[in-house]
Design the sequence.
C-alpha cells in the first residue's frame, strides 16, 4: 500500500469515527429534547433534588494507556499522592475516576455518549472530535514535546535514506503517524516507501519477521526496544514541528454545571508538577511502575520533566497544536474548520 493509499484508508477510518461521533451527538440531542419534554411537568417538584445533585460530582476522566491505571504526569501524580480529590472537594467533587482507553476514537465516543466528563489524550483525536461537533472545551496542553523513536530491525537500515524502497509500519491516527509522514516528506521519501497500518502491539513482531523495515514507537516502547538492541535511526525531537502534544478537554456540559472546575484543575496540576519536579526520583519510580515495571532509565527517557509545561498553554505548544490541525485539514481529515482560540477555555 503506498503512502497515498494509506492516507485514503486513514481518511475512511477517521470519517467512520467522525460519523459515529456525529450520530451519537444527534441521538444524544434527540434524547435530551425528549427527556426535557417528558420531564417538564415535574420539573418544579424536582428542583431541590437537582440542585443537591449538581453540588456533588464523581469526575470521570479518560486517558490513553495499555498498561497504566493512572496517567503518567502531574494528574496521576496528584492522585497517587492523595491530593487531587481533596483539592476538588470545594467544587462538590466526591471522587475522581481515571478510566484508561486504548485509543482516541473510543475516548471520543465515551465523551459524546456521556460516559466521561474529561479526556486526557493526543491532539489528533481531540482535534478530529472537536471538528466533528464534539462539545468539548480545551483546558490545557498537559504534554508538549512527545518524542517518537523510528526503530528498525537488527542489521537493518542504518539511516532514514536507506528506507527507500522498503515498507514502514505505523499506528494511524496518532502523533506517530504525523511524525512519520512529516519525516518522509522532509526526506523526499513519500513516494518511495510503502506505509502499512500496523497496531503498535504487533509492531515488534513485524520488525523481527522482516515484514517491515521500520516503525515509529512512542514513549516507553521506543526506549525499551533500543535497550534490547534495536537501532533507532531517527527521533521526532530532532525535527522542529514533528513532536506530539497531549491535551486535556472537558465537556461543555461539565463547564456549564461547574464553571470553576477547569481553572481549579489547572491549579492542582501546576502544584503537582512543582511537587514532582522537587521529587524527580520518586516520580520516576511511579512512572516506571505505571509503565509495567520498566527499568528506571526507560521511564526517565520516556517522560522527561520538561515534557510537562508549567502553564496551561505555551507559545510552543499552541504552535504545534495549530500545525497538527493544519496537517489534518490539508489531508481533508477534519469535518469542519474551527479556531483553536474559540476552543480554549477562557482564563485557564
Sequence:
Amino acid at each position: 500500500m503506498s503512502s497515498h493509499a494509506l492516507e485514503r484508508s486513514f481518511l475512511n477510518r477517521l470519517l467512520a469515527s467522525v460519523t459515529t461521533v456525529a450520530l451519537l451527538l444527534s441521538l444524544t440531542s434527540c434524547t435530551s429534547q425528549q427527556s426535557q419534554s417528558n420531564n417538564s411537568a415535574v420539573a418544579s417538584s424536582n428542583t431541590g433534588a437537582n440542585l443537591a445533585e449538581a453540588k456533588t460530582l464523581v469526575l470521570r476522566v479518560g486517558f490513553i494507556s495499555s498498561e497504566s491505571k493512572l496517567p503518567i504526569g502531574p494528574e496521576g501524580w496528584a492522585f497517587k499522592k492523595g491530593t487531587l480529590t481533596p483539592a476538588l472537594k470545594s467544587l462538590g467533587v466526591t471522587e475522581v475516576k481515571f478510566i484508561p482507553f486504548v485509543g482516541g476514537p473510543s475516548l471520543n465516543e465515551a465523551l459524546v455518549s456521556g460516559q466521561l466528563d474529561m479526556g486526557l489524550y493526543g491532539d489528533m483525536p481531540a482535534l478530529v472530535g472537536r471538528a466533528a461537533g464534539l462539545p468539548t472545551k480545551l483546558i490545557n496542553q498537559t504534554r508538549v514535546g512527545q518524542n517518537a523513536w523510528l526503530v528498525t530491525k537488527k542489521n537493518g537500515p542504518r539511516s532514514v535514506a536507506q528506507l527507500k524502497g522498503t515498507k514502514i509500519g505505523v499506528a494511524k491516527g496518532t502523533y506517530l503517524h504525523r511524525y512519520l509522514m512529516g519525516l518522509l516528506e522532509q526526506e523526499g521519501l513519500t513516494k518511495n516507501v510503502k506505509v502499512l497500518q500496523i497496531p503498535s502491539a504487533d509492531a515488534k513482531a513485524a520488525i523481527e519477521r522482516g515484514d517491515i523495515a521500520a516503525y515509529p514507537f512512542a514513549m516507553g516502547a521506543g526506549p525499551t526496544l533500543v535497550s534490547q538492541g534495536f537501532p533507532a535511526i531517527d527521533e521526532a525531537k530532532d525535527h522542529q514541528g514533528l513532536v506530539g502534544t497531549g491535551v486535556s478537554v472537558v465537556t461543555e456540559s461539565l463547564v456549564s454545571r461547574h464553571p470553576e472546575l477547569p481553572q481549579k484543575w489547572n491549579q492542582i496540576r501546576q502544584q503537582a508538577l512543582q511537587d514532582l519536579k522537587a521529587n524527580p526520583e520518586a516520580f520516576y519510580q511511579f512512572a516506571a511502575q505505571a509503565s509495567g515495571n520498566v527499568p528506571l532509565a526507560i521511564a526517565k527517557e520516556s517522560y522527561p520533566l520538561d515534557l510537562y509545561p508549567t502553564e496551561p498553554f505555551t507559545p510552543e505548544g499552541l504552535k504545534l497544536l495549530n500545525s497538527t490541525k493544519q496537517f489534518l485539514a490539508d489531508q481533508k481529515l477534519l469535518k469542519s474548520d474551527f479556531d483553536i482560540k474559540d476552543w480554549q477555555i477562557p482564563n485557564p
